[in-house]
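Could someone model acetoacetyl-coenzyme A with this protein?
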Amino acid sequence: MDFTLNEEQELFLEMVRKFARHEVAAVAEQVDREHRFPQETIAKMGELGLLGLSIPEEYGGSGGDYLSYVLMIEELAKVCASTAVIVAVHTGLACTSIARFGAEAQREKFLGPLAAGEIIGAYALTEPNAGSDAASLTLTASDAGEHWRLNGSKVFITNASEAGIFVTFARTDPASRGAEGITCLIVERDTPGLTISKPVEKMGLHGSVTCELHFDNALVPKENVLGEIGHGFKVAMQMLDGGRIAIAAQGLGIAEGALDYAIRYIRQREQFGRPIAANQGIQWLVADLATEIDAARLLVYRAAWLKTAGRPHGKEAAMAKKFATDTAMQVTSDCVQLLGGYGYTREYPVERHMRDAKVTQIYEGTNQIQQMVIARHLLR
Ligand code: CAA
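Reply:
Sure, complex below.
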């Protein structure tokens, strides 16, 4: 396994890093404080071709490899985890689902506007009573001639209030249970009968909107079925195998952003007549945190490398997601500690990193679900 970046990846990384450090970092604190979707940054990312990384060039995308995509999420998360998850759901879940499973007409209709950021994508799997147990979903799609008639609700839908399309999972076979009988549909925002709630208030990720969707006899044209009827659960799971690598990269970036800041801080903060970084207790802590981050990075890049190579990566994605996001929580909490009382205030970014880190252990499958996925791979 060789993670040496080729020239194209190096150039891409340099461009993304510059963009993240200047444009994204400049509004990160404000976006968090004002609970504001970073419209201007997302629009610029569309112009730069960064939103269409999973979309082939012939459909208006930039056709990047998966490792480049993961590097981008990591760079964004170092400065603004909200921006990272907006892009992860838009590009990694919504765009990728259509690029991979879409019929020609669907690709032609949706991928160009998605790549340009003219429309934002969301991924609607979770329901009030179907979170970890995704296969128990009950959003009903009943046959209505040329349409599917949708009734039910989705919750915790990232990007929802900004989204133009929702890659949605519904039960098209009323007699089915569990993973059978679920179909994936592209639901357009202006679908009559679809209502989107106000964003829910969260502990962190204040720039990322999270809403409920309510379907009340919402008619979705049959031409919007994504993939095969009744095979939606596998689409969902395959998308999450990749999505979890992006969330792992988000955790990695959050941890790196917090530790970078804390290291700068401990070198200049003086107590007892010298920088606190001169204390061995602090040196050993940052050494341990940096080691954990490096271990997480290797797991994340390995999973991305396997996916880029077209090799099985479900177990490795779950390992990377669990380890990197647990690392993010630990590192950000320790970084708040390193900054002491200042770390607990909104004046310094580490408390934002800590609030943002928490949900990475929860969404795209809790870390307990990742343990289940890993164990099933080991035991089957
Ligand atoms: N790839 C392809 N097929 C898969 C698969 C995968 N990774 N995982 C399962 N399947 C297939 C199985 O092979 C099986 O098919 P067959 O019957 O034909 O063999 C079928 O799907 C059912 O599989 P399981 O019996 O393993 O399913 P399960 O009900 O036990 O559930 C689970 C498995 C892993 C627990 C799953 O429910 C899960 O991942 N839960 C977590 C949900 C989740 O991650 N939600 C994220 C929401 S999106 C989000 O969070 C985005 C955001 O906002 C940031």
